[in-house]
Amino acid sequence: MHEPPVCLAEFEELAAKVLPGDIRDFIDGGSGREQTLRANRAAFDRVFLVPRVLRDVSACSTRTTLLGRPAAMPVAVAPVAYHRLAHPDGEPATARAARDAGVPFTVSTLSSVPVEDVTALGGHVWFQLYCLRDHAATLGLIRRAEDAGCRALMLTLDVPWMARRPRDMRNRFRLPPHVRPVHLTADSETEAHRGASGGSALAAHTAMELSAAVDWSYLETLRAASGLPLVVKGILDPDDARRAADVGVDGIVVSNHGGRQLDGAIAGLDALPGVAESVGDRCEIMLDGGVRSGADVLKALALGASGVLVGRPVIWGLAADGERGVRTVLDLLGAEIKDALGLTGCGDVAAARALKTTWPGTSGSALSPVSGRGATAGGPPT
């Protein structure tokens, strides 16, 4: 790259120039008519922050904790499948950049590199887990993540099967030979590489592995199966959030899977205040989907999150310039968070959680935080 990007959107443009069309569609696309994919971004665009003034911000700090461990900023790298689709160096390149940026990196069950190879690089690594048909295999992945040195488990709840994703279906998308689902079975690997007639090979191979026959007792079983912090990802309803807290989870990621599961699902940012209010301080709340700037991070904090997960921008950076590209993405995001903190009168992340927000055009103006966990009353239209 000749001129370094100055915002995350420029990485999207750079990645689009180097990625094959089918891989670009797999990374950027959503399900159905992509209403929810667009809604995630639109939700951030309609929320505005109310800055404070006459506060000493000469020593702004982005440092915080996530799941009880220090982080350089309230950001973690989201679980994203098959980083080697974007760049030959794959997950290790992303993990090294996250390590050096001081933020957690989440290894996906659908990783193209074994979890042991990632944790060997050091850093703060979480492991994302799907509900597999073979419960013994699920427990085996938990043991494997523990033995490898992962610091937390993140159970994805919103994928009983992969939703219909028209871009992948039209492209008859399949994994290229150099990309393998290293944590899954040989039969599943074969299916992932096989061209599907009129559909996505990835949808076929995940259907072989994922279980739709899980309920709250399953979550209780997994909670008891490991001493690692347990985070559940894919919750949007406050009642589900409250029940997850009752089970004893350590964290909730408010998420609609980046607009890749139910098309028409509520945007994560719109769901966030209700989820945060429903659980109070019983567990940590994070958000993913649509985060593209430091100001977006502060909006999430003000509405009840302790941090955000970032997926697509990281993969755009990886595609555009490998490990250096991911470093630049995370450096830019850190600089933007610090800038947003100072310009809203916040000396640290805790102060950002007390910011007021407003949705112009709706009844009411500035919204007051609720018990320091973000604004809820009179929230945005959903």
UniProtKB/TrEMBL annotation:
<dbReference type="GO" id="GO:0004460">
    <property type="term" value="F:L-lactate dehydrogenase (cytochrome) activity"/>
</dbReference>
<protein>
    <submittedName>
        <fullName>Hydroxymandelate oxidase Hmo</fullName>
        <ecNumber>1.1.2.3</ecNumber>
    </submittedName>
</protein>
<dbReference type="InterPro" id="IPR008259">
    <property type="entry name" value="FMN_hydac_DH_AS"/>
</dbReference>
<dbReference type="InterPro" id="IPR013785">
    <property type="entry name" value="Aldolase_TIM"/>
</dbReference>
<dbReference type="Pfam" id="PF01070">
    <property type="entry name" value="FMN_dh"/>
</dbReference>
<feature type="domain" description="FMN hydroxy acid dehydrogenase">
    <location>
        <begin position="1"/>
        <end position="362"/>
    </location>
</feature>
<keyword id="KW-0288">FMN</keyword>
<dbReference type="InterPro" id="IPR037396">
    <property type="entry name" value="FMN_HAD"/>
</dbReference>
<keyword id="KW-0560">Oxidoreductase</keyword>
<comment type="similarity">
    <text>Belongs to the FMN-dependent alpha-hydroxy acid dehydrogenase family.</text>
</comment>
<dbReference type="InterPro" id="IPR000262">
    <property type="entry name" value="FMN-dep_DH"/>
</dbReference>
<dbReference type="InterPro" id="IPR012133">
    <property type="entry name" value="Alpha-hydoxy_acid_DH_FMN"/>
</dbReference>
<feature type="region of interest" description="Disordered">
    <location>
        <begin position="362"/>
        <end position="382"/>
    </location>
</feature>
<keyword id="KW-0285">Flavoprotein</keyword>
